[in-house]
Amino acid sequence: MSTDFLFPMRSYSSISKNGVGFNQMFCSKTTVLVPALLLGVLGLFAGCTKAPSNPKTFAVDGVLSLDDKPIEGATIVLVPISKDDGEAASGVSDATGKFSLTTYTSGDGVRPGSYRIRVTKFDKVLVDDSKRVRNMTPEEEMKAYDPDAKPPTPPKNLLPKKYETEMTSGFSHQVKDSPSKLELKLSSK
């Protein structure tokens, strides 16, 4: 009984025209070991490379208030004054008005430089479940399309307009090579 189905390489070990068998040509120890060793060494080098690190940042924490009352859910953005002054950083205030700014990863801080500040807080738009986007067939989309429908109202900024942009907010901050605190007192007047 033939065992070629159990050992398929055995069926290819017949002698070729030049007198060398398949196993001798392609399955010698050096033919298998050298590529395997090369792949292993390359794998080690690939695992040893270090990801590029982000520039140094420093903690910037603060408190935000409007008319001496804390603001929850506001977004604070530090915008560099010049292209040489770091990168934008942002944070969101909690129920007590406290926030920590982030540039690359959560809570990592801000690069040294000069910044202007903008503050916004948008109302939450609740979406009716019946109007949520769902997967539709092209035919269903055509039926649902209404060319006369009004676009949804964009969310409204709940803070005074002057704080919407860094150019009109009146706030700025200098980040040096150390942690810093920021107190933003907004006024509705």
The largest pleated sheet is described as: 4 strands, mixed
Q: How many domain regions? A: 2
N-to-C SSE string, H for helix and E for strand? HHHEEEEEEHEE
For this structure, what is the CATH class of the largest domain?
Mainly Beta
Structural class: alpha+beta
Parts with pLDDT < 50 across at least 5 consecutive residues: 9-13
Distance between the termini: 98 Å
Secondary-structure blueprint:
Elements: H1 8-11, H2 22-26, H3 29-48, E1 60-66, E2 69-70, E3 75-80, E4 89-92, E5 98-100, E6 113-120, H4 138-144, E7 172-175, E8 180-186
Parallel strand pairs: 1-8
Antiparallel strand pairs: 1-2, 1-5, 3-4, 3-6, 6-7
Please, could you describe this protein's structure?
The N and C termini lie far apart (98 Å). By secondary structure, the protein is of the alpha+beta class. It is flat, with a radius of gyration of 32 Å. 19% of the residues lie in helices and 22% in strands. The protein is built from four helices and eight strands, in the order H-H-H-E-E-E-E-E-E-H-E-E. Strands 1, 2, 5 and 8 form a four-stranded mixed beta sheet that branches. Residues 9-13 have low confidence and may be disordered. The protein folds into two domains: 8-47; 60-128 and 155-186, Immunoglobulin-like (Sandwich), CATH 2.60.40.1120.
Q: Summed up, what is this model?
A:
This protein is α+β, with helices and mostly antiparallel strands. It has helices at residues 8-11, 22-26, 29-48, 138-144; strands at residues 60-66, 69-70, 75-80, 89-92, 98-100, 113-120, 172-175, 180-186. The chain has two domains: 8-47; 60-128 and 155-186, Immunoglobulin-like, CATH 2.60.40.1120.
